[in-house]
Design a protein that fits this description.
single chain, 1 helix, 325 residues, globular, Tachylectin-2, Chain A
Length: 325
């Protein structure tokens, strides 16, 4: 995404047809949703999906500071909870870095994190704004590469990664999409059809599908999630995660409005939309989930087995738990 003030976890190229992205019955990261109580009649946005508060109030993970390869972190990272272990992949960089590198950290509780002692785990190519999907004994990483072009990497253990290449996305008529960035790749699979959401310069979110994962074809050549009409996402949007919950799809995305007065800087916010068909989306009427001035984005929902927690990951990682009634 062009979230770099224009500088430059379900749960989304020469790829293997066997590489699934998210189980179609999973709410988050291949797991069934923890919540079984029904939402209020007529509610399309259950409170367990949209009402969160930071706990703790301070970041649970940040850049390591000057002098380290990951002095700062940026954009979407990804968190999986596997067997009680929280696993985080993140992008780290130095102020004068010529590339973005991939880091890894773990936590026993989702709050206290330990960096892997052999970081960075991948530095052969530019990797940022990623999502990680475990499927059939492998991990698949959809990420931005150099110049915000979507790519795919694969791993047996989530630590040693091999790059498979850029994603091949086509228009409805089969022609390649116009040259330029196509980033923040977010995938979903259902009924043997693969769905890929991506943004172009953060000016909208497009959807392409594939049955062989070799060529992706746009469902329509216009965005399925556009800008506005609210000020909070009036100028830029990008999608982070798709979940399926109680028969509806939910898209966790982030948006930005106009730059701050007298500045080129923008504040980013975390938002939610819902759909019954992955094409037509309704935005949560109380977006954003957190005050715009908090500048929290790249939201990732994690199922803890009894509740959902939400992490925002740019450029510090905050953990949010369900708001008490």
């Amino acid at each position: 995404m062009t979230k770099r003030i224009l500088i430059g976890m379900a749960v989304t190229c020469s790829v293997l047809a066997a590489c699934g992205l998210l189980f179609h019955h999973a709410a988050v990261l291949g797991q069934q949703p923890a919540f079984e109580s029904s939402p209020p009649p007529g509610s399309r946005f259950p409170r367990e999906l949209v009402e969160f508060v930071a706990e703790p109030n301070t970041p649970v993970f940040t850049g390591a500071g000057e002098g380290h390869w990951d002095a700062r972190i940026r954009e979407r990272g990804w968190i999986l909870r596997e067997g009680g272990l929280y696993r985080m992949w993140y992008t780290g960089y130095e102020s004068n870095a010529s590339t973005m590198k991939l880091g890894y950290a773990t936590s026993p509780d989702g709050v206290h994190w330990t960096r892997y002692d052999k970081n960075p785990i991948y530095d052969e190519h530019w990797v940022e704004d990623m999502m990680v999907i475990p499927y059939r004994g492998r991990y698949y990483m959809f990420a931005e590469g150099l110049a915000d072009r979507a790519q795919l990497l694969v791993s047996e253990d989530g630590l040693k990664w091999t790059r498979l290449g850029q994603l091949d996305i086509r228009k409805q008529n089969g022609e390649p999409i116009e040259p330029g960035p196509y980033g923040t790749p977010t995938a979903w699979v259902e009924n043997d059809v693969w769905y890929l959401f991506y943004e172009r310069r953060d000016l909208g979110i497009w959807l392409a599908t594939s049955r062989d994962m070799k060529v992706w074809t746009n469902v329509q050549d216009d965005p399925v999630i556009g800008l506005g009409p609210g000020q909070y996402d009036s100028e830029q949007v990008a999608l982070n995660q798709i979940i399926k919950y109680r028969g509806r799809y939910y898209a966790y995305y982030h948006g930005a409005g106009a730059p701050l007065p007298g500045s080129r800087s923008r504040l980013w916010c975390t938002c939610v939309a819902t759909s019954t068909d992955l094409v037509h989306w309704e935005k949560y009427p109380h977006n954003p989930l957190f005050p715009i001035e908090d500048n929290k984005s790249s939201g990732i929902l994690v199922d803890e087995g009894g509740r959902f927690v939400l992490y925002t990951m740019h450029d510090q990682v905050y953990r949010h738990v369900p708001r008490r009634k």
